[in-house]
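Q: Here's a chain of 376 amino acids. Please give me its 3D structure as tokens.
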Amino acid sequence: MSALDQYLHQKLDERKRNQNLRALSAPDSSLIDFTSNDYLGLARSPELFDSITSRLEQLRLNQNGATGSRLLSGNSVYQEEVERKLAGIFKSEASLILNSGYSANLAALSALPQRGDTILYDELSHASIKDGARLSLAKRFGFRHNDVNDLEKKLKSSEGRIYIVVESVYSMNGDVCPLKDLVSLAQQYGASIILDEAHSTGVLGEYGNGLACSQGLHDQIDVRIYTFGKAMGVHGACISGSEKLRQYLTNFARPFIYTTALPPHSIAAIDCAFEFLSLNADLQEHLRKRISLYQQLTSSSNEESSTAIQTVIIPGNQQVKEAARQLQQNGFDIRPILSPTVSAGGERLRICLHSCNTMEEITNLSMALKMIRRDP
């Protein structure tokens, strides 16, 4: 065993002892999906699949790959057309498509803040936000989750251009940021907001245009990041804002400049997904009804979340893994979230509701959860 493999073995063995070793496993199609981010069921929609196929044939998009970065050979008239459509949906001057939500957060946070600036991010922000902040030369500080008072304390001592980075809906808690209060603070202290709309895209707002648009605050937020691999059921992401922002990112965002562009199929999929949702807006209402039923049936569950993401806290990696195993044996695909993904003591079952889950399935799940909670 090489010196490197010995080190890797040691680190993996440490994970095993802490009951948090990760491993890949294919989803069991026989289980009822309560774990995926496919909130509106678009990823499994045969109608959307057919629409994408037809669009590719209609536009004669018979090229398998993008062939290069967008600044070389990977751009297209169609991709820019879809970006203009997205700008209209998200009520912004412009949008710039990137390969994933992770890449979009890296692009915005590594390119916009500069040396001498300050990034203030919610402590429960996604790893891509924290990684993007690390790539920046700016100072970076976390503030307590959804705590505007703690944020204001840090704003008072911030230097340079100030960036407040938050998520619309937090992926591990399912709760929503206090966006109106954040906007007021940003205006008071001359800060810019970078808003990650990953888990609100498709689910909230007209045509799925997210939290900021649904609250009429879109024109007061400088940078909004939308992800298409969750409720929209496809892949990719975009950054929406001013035309100047689009031009700046095209020139300075390394995750955009130095990567191969999305293939034509992905661009058509994004276009068709939003068109499909505009014709099936009732999917959002179906989801809201299922969230409401789940909350009625599980009064002791996550009271902070009114979204598709619900949680049941079961402290301890071994304990929460056992609870997930019991639920899977009862036919529900629910996964445990272990530390260090969440803080020790905050281990949980992350339950994702979907517009395609039946009321009976949700009722049966609530009964199974109650049985688990009775176990010593």
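Q: Can you summarize the key feature?
A: The chain has two domains: 23-39+308-374, 47-279.
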